[in-house]
Design a protein that fits this description.
Length: about 375
C-alpha cells in the first residue's frame, strides 16, 4: 500500500508543532513517513480528523493538538521503532473515511505494526473493527467509556451507536466486548440487560476505581482498545462536549493505557473525542499525550508471555471446586507473574475460538476458585462458548 496517497505528512516546522526539540524529546526519537518500509516499524501513529457523525463538533482538529504535547515529551530509551504516518485525508463521505481507515489498519495489522489512532470521533472504532474482517479471527473489543454507545440500529452510524453496528455486523467476528468505567446514570436498564444477555462484561466507574489493578486482565484480553476521553472527569479533561463531573482521574487513565500497552494480545488502540475548541490551556491534549506516552512505555515492557503452545515454564494450579464436580486450571507466568485461566472448549468450536482458550485473570480470581466459587471471568467465557 502506498501510504502517501492516503495521508497528509507531518511538518514539525509549521504551526503549533514548530518547536526547538532536543535530542531526547519524542519528535526526535521517531520517524515521519517518507516512503519507508512500514514493516520495519513496531508502532504507527495515525491522525484521523473525522467528526461528521459525532455529537462533539470540534474534535476533528485534535490530532495535531495532541501531537504538540506528545512530541515534546521525553524519556523514550527503547529499540521500539515508531513512525508517524501523518493525518488521514478525509473522504468525500464518512463512509469513504471509514473504508480508507479500515484498509490502512488491515495492512498495518498484516505487517505486525500496531496503530495508535488519534481521533476524531469514537465512531472510528467501527472502522478499526472492520480492519480485522479478513484476518479470519474473532476479536475482543474493550472500551473505556462512561456509556455503552448502544443506539438505534436503523439510524446512521454515529459516535453514539457504533457498538450496535459492531454487534449486528455480519459475518460476526466480535467474540467479546468489555466496557470499563460506565456511569449508571447514563445507562438504562435495557442496555444493561442486553450486555448481560450477550455475556459481555461491564464495570462501573466506582467498581473500577476501588481496585484499578483489576483493569489489567480486562485490557490484557483485548485486541482493540477504544478510549473515549469523556470517560475522564471534566476537571481533568475539559476538552469534550460530553464531559462529566465524574470519571477517571488523569493518572488512572495513564495507568489503564500502560496496561493496554503491556498486553501481548492488543494490536490496535484509539483515543477519541478530544475537542481543542473547549480545551482549557491544552489540558486535555496534554493528558492524552501522556496517555500515549504510557501506552508506548507499556509496549516497551511487553514480556511476550502470552501462554500459547507449550506451557512448561508456567506454574500450573488446578483447583477443584463444588465437591470436585468442576476443576479450574490456572497458569502463572514466570516472567511477569500474571495469571490466566484455562476454559474448556466444546470440540466443534476449538479451532474457531482457540486464541481465546486462555482467559487473562488476576490473583483474586484464583482466590475466588480456592473459596469454592467459579470466577466470573471464567463463567462469562464458558457461556459464550457453549
Amino acid at each position: 500500500m502506498n501510504f502517501s496517497e492516503y495521508f497528509e505528512p507531518i511538518n514539525i516546522n509549521e504551526g503549533d508543532l514548530d518547536f526547538n526539540y532536543n535530542d531526547h524529546q519524542f519528535a526526535n526519537t521517531i520517524e515521519f513517513y517518507n516512503n519507508q518500509n512500514i514493516a520495519d516499524f513496531n508502532i504507527a501513529i495515525i491522525g484521523v480528523g473525522e467528526e461528521r457523525n459525532s455529537n462533539n463538533e470540534g474534535c476533528a482538529t485534535a490530532p495535531n493538538h495532541v501531537r504538540k504535547y506528545l512530541y515534546r515529551l521525553i524519556g523514550f530509551k527503547t529499540t521500539t521503532k515508531i513512525i508517524d504516518l501523518g493525518n488521514l485525508k478525509i473522504g468525500a463521505t464518512v463512509d469513504d473515511t471509514y473504508f480508507a481507515l479500515s484498509s490502512i489498519l488491515e495492512d498495518l495489522l498484516k505487517q505486525n505494526v500496531l496503530p495508535i489512532i488519534i481521533g476524531g470521533s469514537q465512531d472510528l472504532t467501527y472502522a478499526n473493527f472492520l480492519a480485522y474482517k479478513n484476518l479470519e479471527q474473532t476479536v475482543n473489543l474493550v472500551a473505556i467509556d462512561s456509556k455503552f454507545d448502544l443506539g438505534e440500529a436503523d439510524e446512521e452510524l454515529s459516535s453514539t451507536n457504533f457498538l450496535t453496528k459492531i454487534i449486528l455486523h455480519q459475518p460476526n467476528y466480535l467474540f467479546n466486548y468489555s466496557n470499563i468505567g460506565y456511569q449508571s446514570y447514563f445507562i438504562d436498564k435495557e442496555q444493561i440487560d442486553l450486555i448481560s444477555k450477550l455475556y459481555f462484561d461491564s464495570y462501573r466507574l466506582g467498581q473500577v476505581q476501588k481496585n484499578i489493578e483489576e483493569v489489567e486482565p480486562i485490557v490484557r484480553n483485548a485486541d482493540i482498545l477504544s478510549f473515549d476521553i469523556s470517560a475522564i472527569r471534566q476537571s481533568e479533561a475539559p476538552g469534550n462536549r460530553n464531559a462529566s463531573p465524574n470519571g477517571f482521574y488523569g493518572e488512572q487513565a495513564c495507568q489503564i493505557s500502560r496496561y493496554a500497552g503491556m498486553s501481548d494480545k492488543l494490536t490496535s488502540v484509539g483515543f477519541y473525542e478530544i475537542n481543542p475548541e473547549l480545551d482549557t490551556n491544552g489540558q486535555t491534549a496534554h493528558s492524552v499525550a501522556q496517555m500515549i506516552w504510557y501506552f508506548i512505555d507499556g509496549y516497551n515492557n511487553r514480556k511476550n508471555d502470552f501462554p500459547v503452545g507449550s506451557r512448561k515454564t508456567y506454574l500450573k494450579y488446578m483447583v477443584n471446586i463444588q465437591d470436585g464436580k468442576n476443576e479450574v486450571v490456572f497458569y502463572k507466568s514466570d516472567k511477569s507473574e500474571r495469571w490466566w485461566m484455562d476454559v474448556p472448549y466444546p470440540a466443534h468450536n476449538k479451532i474457531k475460538y482457540e486464541r481465546h482458550l486462555l482467559v487473562p485473570c488476576s490473583y483474586d480470581d484464583y482466590k475466588t476458585a480456592c473459596n469454592n466459587e467459579v470466577p466470573n471471568r471464567w463463567w462469562q467465557t464458558f457461556q459464550k462458548l457453549s
